[in-house]
Design goal:
- α10 links the parallel β10 and β11.
- With 250 residues, this protein is of the alpha/beta class.
- The model has no long low-confidence stretch (mean pLDDT 92).
- The protein has three domains: 31 residues; 79 residues, no CATH class; 127 residues, Rossmann fold (3-Layer(aba) Sandwich), CATH 3.40.50.
- Helix content is 41%, strand content 18%.
- The chain has a five-stranded parallel β-sheet. It has a four-stranded mixed β-sheet with strand order 3-4-6-5, sandwiched between helices.
- This is PurE domain-containing protein.
């Protein structure tokens, strides 16, 4: 529900054309849409600056479609669903042709125009090529949240000279997302090179002792570099949202 719609209801109540109970009922009904299998939070965009995001895993194509249609109708910002399979995406796009699908990040989205500040840049670094799907989830999330985003992939500590080649961008960024599996060392290295906030994303990439990302997670949590925060394993979406919130602070 937009600010203008809320003001319209309040004006009607003030003028006496609707009762207090009717105004309250309208505001309550407009903020949450009951769909039987989901309660869509249309007020989230006003509270948090971005519409509710759909988590696609575990939902049917029909459910993803219904929620996306509801959000697209009532939201001003971009609409997105994460962790969507290609099959579900194809089903939704048949009914909702304006939706686009990114196969690498597995994000299904409807992009709405937004003004981005080129001086406020989020930088995303990945340790290896295998980390790109998670890094792309972070990139597209941050982009849809209205940020200028730059990426450099495959610049991990196994060839650390590749990282130093991007020193200018590391210095220019306002927030840095570091995506790494294996031992997760890249986050500590970047944290020691910059005074900007670093968001570390451990990935489930690595051989047996990597324990599907647990080793990288614990290494990042134990980082000796100050100013490094850590999100959950493979949570590119969470990193993208957090980076966006930091980047939009004035």
């Amino acid at each position: 529900m937009t600010d203008e719609e809320i003001c319209s209801v309040l004006r009607r109540y003030k003028q006496g054309s609707i009762s207090e109970r009717e105004a309250a009922a309208f505001l309550e009904k407009s903020s949450v849409e009951e769909m039987g299998f989901a309660e869509v939070d249309h007020a989230r965009e006003r509270r948090q600056g971005f519409p509710e995001v759909i988590y696609g895993e575990g939902k049917t194509g029909e459910q993803v479609l219904a929620i996306m249609e509801a959000l697209a109708e009532k939201s001003a910002g971009s609409v997105m669903a994460t962790r969507v399979s290609a099959e579900k995406a194809a089903f939704v796009q048949e009914k909702l042709p304006e939706a686009r699908y990114d196969e690498v990040s597995r994000i299904l989205y409807i992009e709405r125009p937004v003004v981005r500040d080129p001086e406020r840049m989020i930088l995303i670094l990945s340790a290896g090529t295998s980390d790109i799907p998670v890094a792309e989830e972070a990139r597209l999330t941050a982009h849809l949240c209205g940020n200028t985003v730059k990426v450099h992939y495959d610049c991990g500590v196994a060839g650390i000279h590749r990282l130093f080649a991007h020193k200018a961008d590391i210095e220019a960024a306002r927030v840095i997302i570091v995506v790494a599996g294996m031992e997760g060392a890249l986050a500590s290295v970047v944290g020691g090179l910059t005074d900007k906030p670093v968001i570390a994303v451990p990935t489930s990439v690595g051989y047996g002792a990597a324990f599907h990302g647990v080793t990288a997670l614990l290494a990042m949590l134990s980082s000796c570099a100050s100013g490094v925060s850590v999100v959950n394993i493979d949570n590119g979406f969470g990193a993208g949202v957090l980076a966006s919130k930091i980047n939009h602070l004035r």
